[in-house]
């Protein structure tokens, strides 16, 4: 049983509440998702149809750094998921909006944790989180530890190009905006590059979707020269390159 304490957010998918698990007083997040808002379904071995997010969270539950799914159940018009709610964590977006900044060393520390989580999901479970963005990366205000949330748009790894993308357009790579197709691993590397840019500069590298298509950086390529760590600058530039085939693989980051 869970006692709800406040509303954390609401969107077209449903609503997320903060709560407390009564058996042990553990803080939880309770996510209600409308059935009509589920973009993809998974059919279990028993023939039961469940949202792909529930299936994916069960697959990656052993990966350290992934916010865990404790339990779930179906209701008349949707599904309820009871998940871990880490204390003293905020989204990267909120962290930056609070006026907080990170040193290059701190940015590297945070980014290394994020890459490890994403890589382990891929290596251990064959899952690629295709909606990596500042809203889905949680940072601990005290020790800068990282957690990854929202696997609704995660997919199984494939070398084939895809023509469907349900993630956030503002974080999608140029090839998606131009040709409406992408390679999953290259997309993930691009989104990681966008997050790394946000960590370093506390802002998004692009101001409008049109800039992603035309590949105009917010401060042009001079921005990368502001980074004192050349290896970090080179990595960021390689991840945010226009051609997907020239981006590094996940195992090379």
UniProtKB/TrEMBL annotation:
<keyword id="KW-0723">Serine/threonine-protein kinase</keyword>
<feature type="active site" description="Proton acceptor">
    <location>
        <position position="131"/>
    </location>
</feature>
<keyword id="KW-1035">Host cytoplasm</keyword>
<feature type="domain" description="Protein kinase">
    <location>
        <begin position="2"/>
        <end position="253"/>
    </location>
</feature>
<dbReference type="InterPro" id="IPR011009">
    <property type="entry name" value="Kinase-like_dom_sf"/>
</dbReference>
<keyword id="KW-0547">Nucleotide-binding</keyword>
<dbReference type="InterPro" id="IPR051138">
    <property type="entry name" value="PIM_Ser/Thr_kinase"/>
</dbReference>
<dbReference type="GO" id="GO:0004674">
    <property type="term" value="F:protein serine/threonine kinase activity"/>
</dbReference>
<dbReference type="InterPro" id="IPR000719">
    <property type="entry name" value="Prot_kinase_dom"/>
</dbReference>
<dbReference type="GO" id="GO:0005524">
    <property type="term" value="F:ATP binding"/>
</dbReference>
<feature type="binding site">
    <location>
        <begin position="8"/>
        <end position="16"/>
    </location>
    <ligand>
        <name>ATP</name>
    </ligand>
</feature>
<feature type="binding site">
    <location>
        <position position="31"/>
    </location>
    <ligand>
        <name>ATP</name>
    </ligand>
</feature>
<dbReference type="InterPro" id="IPR017348">
    <property type="entry name" value="PIM1/2/3"/>
</dbReference>
<dbReference type="InterPro" id="IPR008271">
    <property type="entry name" value="Ser/Thr_kinase_AS"/>
</dbReference>
<dbReference type="GO" id="GO:0007346">
    <property type="term" value="P:regulation of mitotic cell cycle"/>
</dbReference>
<dbReference type="GO" id="GO:0005737">
    <property type="term" value="C:cytoplasm"/>
</dbReference>
<keyword id="KW-0067">ATP-binding</keyword>
<feature type="binding site">
    <location>
        <position position="84"/>
    </location>
    <ligand>
        <name>ATP</name>
    </ligand>
</feature>
<dbReference type="GO" id="GO:0030430">
    <property type="term" value="C:host cell cytoplasm"/>
</dbReference>
<comment type="similarity">
    <text>Belongs to the protein kinase superfamily.</text>
</comment>
<dbReference type="InterPro" id="IPR017441">
    <property type="entry name" value="Protein_kinase_ATP_BS"/>
</dbReference>
<keyword id="KW-0808">Transferase</keyword>
<protein>
    <recommendedName>
        <fullName>Serine/threonine-protein kinase 1</fullName>
        <ecNumber>2.7.11.1</ecNumber>
    </recommendedName>
</protein>
<keyword id="KW-0597">Phosphoprotein</keyword>
<dbReference type="GO" id="GO:0043066">
    <property type="term" value="P:negative regulation of apoptotic process"/>
</dbReference>
<keyword id="KW-0418">Kinase</keyword>
<dbReference type="Pfam" id="PF00069">
    <property type="entry name" value="Pkinase"/>
</dbReference>
């Amino acid at each position: 049983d869970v006692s709800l304490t406040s509303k954390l957010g609401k969107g077209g998918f449903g609503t997320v509440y903060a709560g407390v698990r009564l058996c042990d007083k553990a803080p939880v997040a309770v996510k209600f998702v409308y059935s009509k808002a589920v973009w993809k379904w998974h059919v279990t071995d028993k023939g039961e149809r469940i949202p792909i997010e529930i299936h994916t969270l069960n697959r990656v539950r052993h990966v350290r750094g992934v916010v865990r799914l404790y339990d779930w159940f179906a209701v008349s018009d949707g599904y309820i998921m009871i998940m871990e709610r880490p204390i003293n964590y905020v989204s990267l977006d909120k962290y930056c909006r609070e006026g907080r900044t990170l040193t290059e060393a701190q940015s590297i520390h945070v980014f290394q944790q994020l890459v490890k989580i994403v890589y382990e999901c891929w290596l251990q479970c064959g899952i690629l989180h295709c909606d990596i963005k500042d809203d889905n990366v949680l940072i601990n205000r005290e020790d800068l530890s990282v957690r990854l949330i929202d696997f609704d748009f995660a997919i199984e790894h494939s070398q084939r190009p895809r023509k469907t993308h349900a993630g956030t357009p503002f974080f999608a790579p140029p090839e998606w905006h131009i040709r409406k197709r992408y390679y999953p691993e290259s997309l993930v590397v691009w989104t990681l590059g966008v997050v790394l840019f946000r960590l370093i500069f506390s802002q998004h590298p692009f101001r409008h979707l049109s800039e992603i298509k035309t590949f105009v950086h917010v401060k042009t390529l001079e921005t990368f020269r502001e980074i004192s760590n050349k290896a970090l600058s080179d990595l960021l530039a390689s991840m945010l390159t226009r051609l997907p085939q020239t981006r590094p693989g996940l195992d090379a980051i």
